[in-house]
Prior knowledge:
alpha+beta, flat
Amino acid sequence: MKAKFSILVLMLASIVWLTGCTKKTENDFNGYVAGLTTGSYLKGKATYDPGTNSWTDQSVLGNTLDAGNLATTKVGVRVRSWGNDPVVTANIYVVRNTNANQTAWRFIKKYTIADGDTSYFDIYVSAQEIATALGLQLNVSAGNFPPGSVFTCYIEAVTKSGKKYTVNNSNFTGSGANFYYSVFSFRGSVVCPFTPASMPGNYVVVTDQWEDWAPGDVIPSPIT
């Protein structure tokens, strides 16, 4: 009888303990949930394939800067306003390489988005605009645009209510996760100009991840 009584006491104590823990956890959690809302950002263009349950990024309009054509080359992304508090201004900044410290960013320009407009629009940044913002010469000499150089453009999304969002106050969940496709930055890499005459002869395909060619295919000269 004593043993049964002890077991009953332990069971009652366990129930009280679990109830107390559950109640506290729910209260803590509800307090956080109450303050959550849908964020606002610029959403990159992407398409969803239900057959493969995957997304395809279509936001990149260009990510290379042609060293042989710096006067007209540019990089860019296709985005639209997203969220309950619409983005009405997109401020574009640039740095050499990558640097999330906003004091290092140099302003290029801004895009204004009409209130309620959720259509896609294109953000382009030219090599000339990068040169002007960073005080560079538009040539391939060291310190300017030598091949291999990387420039990162950062976007500051300003909402209708005046809130400002950048890569610094948006965590991974909001900054680039697949189904969010938020765009807070994009890059441009300076590449050497392609001259077909400098690559004579035929070439045999070993592998092609884009699947434009099959292994073993022969690409005749000149390569185009």
